[in-house]
Amino acid sequence: MRDILPPESGRWSSFVDVFRSTVSSAGYGQVIAPLLEDIGVFHRVGEATDVVTKEMYDFVDKGDRHVALRPEQTASICRAFVQHRPATPWKVWYTGPNFRYEKPQRGRYRQFEQVGIEVLGADDPDVDVEVIALGWDFLGALGLRRVTLLVNTLGESSERESFVSSLESYLRSRLGDLSEESVATLERNPLRVLDSKRERDQAVISGAPTIMEFLGESSKSHFDRVLRGLDLLQIPYRIDNRLVRGLDYYRQTTFEFAGGTLESAQNALGGGGRYDSLVEDLGGPATPGIGFAIGLDRTLLACDDEGVFPAFDLGIDVFVVDTAGGSEALRLTNQLRREGFRVDRAFDNRSMKSQMKAADRSGARYAVILGEDEVRAGTALIKPLRSDEDQQSVSSGDLAARLMEKIQ
Ligand code: AMP
Q1: Which domains does the chain have, with CATH numbers?
Q2: Which of 185-194, 263-272, 344-353 ranks highest by mean pLDDT?
Q3: What whole-number distance in Å separates Cα of residue 110 and Cα of residue 100?
Q4: What pLDDT score does 54 carry?
Q5: Are residues 15 and 300 in contact, defined by beta-carbon separation less than 8 angstroms?
Q6: Residue with the nearest Cα to atom 17 of ligand 1?
Q7: For ligand 1, is residue 259 a contact (CB within 6 Å)?
Q8: Given ligand 1 and candidates 1, 57, 108, which is best to mutate, with the most ligand atoms within 8 Å of its CB?
Q9: CB of 381 within 8 A of CB of 393?
Q10: Ligand 1 within 6 A of CB of 100
Q11: pLDDT for 389-408, tens place per residue?
């Protein structure tokens, strides 16, 4: 877990601002869900995933409830849907931290931030396209250009089940060729073996059956409609039949946004897919859903690698320098802030030289200097700090208007 300090923290807020603006322009409203849920909410997500079995921060609270810090937010959103029964399609977005007890490394932390959307209650393949397009457009709006969209389908439950059992028999027949880790994964969840990036497993995986052999007409046509929609919107993609995604609840369309320059284990910036049984599993009516989550931490690393979406200090407009005792600075700073300027000042009666240094460090474009002469005459001196404009003496009454002209 890390501390995020300025100016990086400002970059985090801007990241969420870009996301909010992308998805709210498509009619998505924000859900703010609690960080803690009853552990049962997450158990429904998949008893066979590491996220749930090994990585949850769970504990018994003072009221003897077994709770967990959320490892992801889709389950919380579905729980909220079941509890509040909003009209469908319910189009929502979220942001905030999640917690997983993973082995921390670059791009993988125990507290990490995600932004995401979910649409509940619509089966239409156009919804899949809308969701994927919003993720794609968001990453584009950050300035990222080297993102690859991977898409796959996992079919309906029954098709997925036939596929998984055929995959399992195949993997068992090649047990001796698999890595130790994949043999263990096979016991818990054969599908996840396809996620392995280990070289030893690759040869086995490349000969494995694919979901395509098990798809019925309706799944095929759903997938085709999604692909045609992406073509129509000119969003480039790659079909990747090995893409199974981490969590157990996915059905039909699954997708991932892979960053171009991160090492392969951490190159998934985000991803998502359809889950046609999660709401039901949580006690609600049968409701189709689809969504994605994009990791902020990892996406910002991809931005660093591509040299886009830099951290920047919003900075301030004006720094008030007062060598006349300080009370005029107090009044003027407050007045300018109320008029909408971003203003800072020095404290502790520092010397003129030290205040000017602070003004320079602050990034302000102008210093407003109040010396004894100015205070006596009811004027102030506007001194440019970042250009070679002349300094200017103005009457206190005109100061705000003059600054406004200069700053705009
Ligand atoms: P998931 O919820 O596992 O599908 O992950 C979606 C995205 O969240 C990933 O592509 C990452 O960008 C991000 N993510 C997941 N786990 C972590 C983590 N431990 N640290 C940082 N980012 C993560």
Answers
A1: 8-156+216-306 (3.30.930.10), 318-407 (3.40.50.800)
A2: 344-353
A3: 5
A4: 83
A5: yes
A6: 108
A7: no
A8: 108
A9: yes
A10: yes
A11: 999 999 999 999 999 999 88
